[in-house]
Structure formats: structure tokens, C-alpha cells
Design goal:
The chain is α+β, with helices and mostly antiparallel strands. The protein contains five helices and six strands. A six-stranded mixed sheet has the order 2-1-6-5-4-3. It starts with a helix and ends with a helix.
Length: about 170
Amino acid sequence: MTRLATVAVAAATLLPLPAAAQTPESVVRGFFRDVRSGARPEWADHYFAPLVTAHQVTSEGETQVIRTPGAYASHVREFLDLFGEFRLELVEVLASGDRVYVRWRQTGRHLASLDGEVPTGAHLVDLASAVYRVRRGRIVEYWIQSDRKGLELQVGQAVARRAAGS
């Protein structure tokens, strides 16, 4: 009987807290732990508002995408297809008011094509950062930057090594 009680308590700790009970930082940390990590993409609706504005900030210009929790869960599943069971490390988290800045490092394997190339299985590192805006316990908007050139160079080097037979 004690064992069942322990399991029930452990399982209960896996569920996200009610939105009203969370700070913006705890919402974003939970989102990374449960959803962005690939552990539970289907939990995106616990962290995302019904419509989230994603600002994709690049040197050539900012684009905006409206994401739903379901669309974001699919986006994370694409990462799992591309990188396999990747490792996601939060390098830095800073919170102020309704905004939370996160810088992370994601490592995985090149298991699917990123831009038409044949997957190599090579180890890849993706560095990125984002500012998340949280309202009423849900992520409502974010601005993301990713080292796309670094990822492109890693894939190019892996493809060249594979072509050279090394």
C-alpha cells in the first residue's frame, strides 16, 4: 500500500500546476521541461494560449507565425524526427515581469533532411534563445533567434565527411 501511495504522489508531481498558481518563469521552465524538450509535446495546451504569436527574428527580417498548441506540438515532433531523442539544456533563464528570456543548447543527431541533403546521423548542436511573454499563466507571444548558420555549417561538414568516406 505504501508503494502505491508513493507512485501516486510521483505521478501527481508530473502534472503542470494550474495556470493561476504559476509565475511567468515557472510557466516557461515547465514548458521547456514538458513540451519543448520533446518529453510531452501533447501538453502544449497546458502552457500555450489558444493562439500564440511567434516572432522569428533573423538578420534578413522578422517573420511572424501564429501557433496553436496543436501546431506547436507538431513542431516539436518535427524536431524529434530531425534530431531523434535530443538533449535540451537551459543555459540561461532571466525573468522580469511578464517576460522570460531563455538561452538553450539542443544536441541530437542528423536523422532527417534539413534542406534536401541525405541524413548523416552526425552529432548536431543547435543554439537558440527566445523571450516569452506570459499572461494569465499561458505563453501568449515569443521572439526567437536561432543559430541557423551554425547548424547549416555542421550539416554541410557532415555531408562532406560522409561523401569523403570518413
